[in-house]
Write the C-alpha cells for this entry.
Amino acid sequence: MVYRRFRLETHLADGVIRDDAEGDAARADGARGLTYPFARVPEAGEGIEVAPGVVWFRLPLPMALNHINLYALEDGDGWTLVDTGLFTPASVEIWDGLLTGALRGRPIKRVICTHMHPDHIGMAGWMCERFQVPLLMSRLEYVTARMLVADTGRPAPESGRTFYRAAGWTEEQLAGWGRDYGSFGRVVSPMPDAYHRLTEGDVLSIGGDDWEVVVGQGHSPEHVCLWRRSDGVFLGGDQILPKISSNVSVWPTEPLSDPLGDWMASLDRLAELLPQDLLVLPSHGEPFRGVQTRLAALKRGHGQALARLERRLDTPMRAVDTFASLFARPVGDGLRGMATGEAVAHLNYLERQGRTTRQRDADGVDWWQATGTPVSETNDDNGE
C-alpha cells in the first residue's frame, strides 16, 4: 500500500476550527449542561462497551483533530461497523488487532458510513472486500465520495482557482492548493462499486434491535445518524459533537450553496425530534448526555458568529478578512481551506437573507458588504 502525508484541510472537512471556550473543565462542562458517563476513552486497540451490544473504539488521525470514534454493533454471530477511519498503514494495523482481539474474531456483517469524509469512509472498501459484505450509506454521501475519489490524479480545475481567488487567496496559496489537489482519494481504499441506500426513517434490524435512520445536513450533504429508541442510544457521527462545532463549508464544486442554512434547519429539526436524556455517541470527543442543551448551544454559536460578521461588514471585506470575526484561533496554512469554506458559508447564508451583497473586482476577488441593520446577537453562556 502506498501512503504519503498530505494536507488534509481542503477535502477532509472534519477538522473543526470553532472550539468552545477553553478553561476550567468542570466550569465549562457545567455551563454546557452536558454529562459524560465514561471515565476514560479507549486505548489503541481497545474496545469499551458503552451500551448493550455497542462497543466504542478510537483510531488516530494525522491532524489537529487527532482521533475518530468508531462503533461496532453486535449483530448475531458478528458485527455491524459504523465508520472506519482513514486508509493508512496505522489504521490497517489497528484494525487487524481489533478484529482478532476486541471483536473476538467474529466476522463483520456490514459496514455503515455516516458520511463521506475520508476519516469515516477510508477503510470501508478494505473492510467490505475483506469480509465480502455490503456498504450502507445515504445516496448523496456515496455518490459524492465516488466523485471526490475520482479527482485523485487529475490536474486541479480552474473552477477551484476561481473560487479561492475570489475568497482572497494569494497566487502562492493557489499554487499550493493546486499541488495538493486530489488529497481525498489518497486515504480512501477503493470503494465498493455498489452500496445499499439509507434514507430518512429507515429502520435497520441489528442484533434483534431496531435502529432508526435520522438524516442531518450541513456538515455533509446527507449525513446518517442511527437511533435505538428502545434505550435512547444515538449514533450522532459528526452531526452533533459535544465540545466542538463541526465544519460547515462551501466548496468549489458548489460555490453558491447554503450549507449553513441546511445546518441550522437540521439543528431545529433534531431539537424537535430528540429527547434530552439520549446517550449520544459522537465521532469526535466523548459520549455524552444533554443533547437538547448542545443543539441550542450550537445554534447560538453560529448566530453569534453571524451577528459579529454582519457588524464588521460595514466596510467591504474579502472572505479571508472575516476569519477574526468567526474563529477563536489563528488561521494558518493547515486550516486555510476549511476556514475559507466556513467563512463563505456564513457569507452565503447572509446573502440568501438579503443581508449582504458581493461585488467581484477586476482581479476576480469578491468584496462583501452588509446591506442593513445587523442581526441581533443573543447571549451565549457557553462561550462558543
In short: Residues 1-31, 376-384 have pLDDT under 50 and may be disordered.
